[in-house]
Design goal:
The protein is α+β, with helices and mostly antiparallel strands. The protein has 9 helices and 13 strands.
Length: 319
Amino acid sequence: MSEYAFELALCAQLERERERIVSRQLGTQVHGRRVMDIVCIEPGKAFDERVALTAESIPHLAIVSDVGPGRARYWKDAFDCHPDTAASVVERAVDIGFFERERRNGRTYVRQTAGYPDWYDTIVGIENKPDLGRPGALETQLLTDVQLGLVDEIVLATESYVTGAHRNRIPEEVGIWRFDPDTGERTVLREPERLPTRDSGIEIIDRNSARTEIRVATPNEIELARMRVAERAYGKGWRTYDWPECAEMEPDEAALPYCSWLERVVHPAKDCGSYCDGFEPAEPPDVDTERVRAERTPWKPDPDGLQRTQAGLDRYFKD
């Protein structure tokens, strides 16, 4: 099975096990470049408040801006970035219901519809390596995750038999799962250790035989990066593929892209098309992936929202 299919099968299994937010292919860096295969977000005490806000990812700049749920602010005074960037963030935040907007004397003012809640708890990062015989940059990736401390726990998921030699190359803080994508059986070979996410971290920017380039990430930078990762995971989920226009595509109950001709889960963007010998033109499958996600997770596609009605009040405000 390909690493892509392995990843989707593990995402589906993690959703089955308990209520959590599962996403994939997210940037988990502060200064460098790091893409985590799977990220699991465990709901925190104010999770229901986050669900009520919007089904979408809230722009990070909207959250950290000086816009709050109290008195509306002139939008240009609320952002520490280029005005064009701020304008696009305001538009997006209004569109998804996180900001509400009003006009006073020809100027635009914004406020949050509700304060941003402390909605997530543990963040688990999972690096997939089905075949440990081809580790690639696995050791450096895991070492970066451990020393940075952006996620609370880091896990290596594999289909391979894990030997003592493999364990010796994996940082001891990293948990190890053996996962069978065909049966969904997940065996915990080693529990992950909790990482110190409230401390400063060391991020490996580049590593080769001659030198290692690092940068320090402050606790505040790590906290903001965690918020960004959690928000992106909430809005994105993991079913980000488009359905191919082929009669051989037969999604299963978890909405995995299963091809009946190849008899396996495929990568639609890479495996499907007229170049495939089994390709049979047809309408794409009628699958509502948002409905499937809502049935399997605490995420909701159409929350009520918290936007207040300000109509008719503008005349009482002075610029």
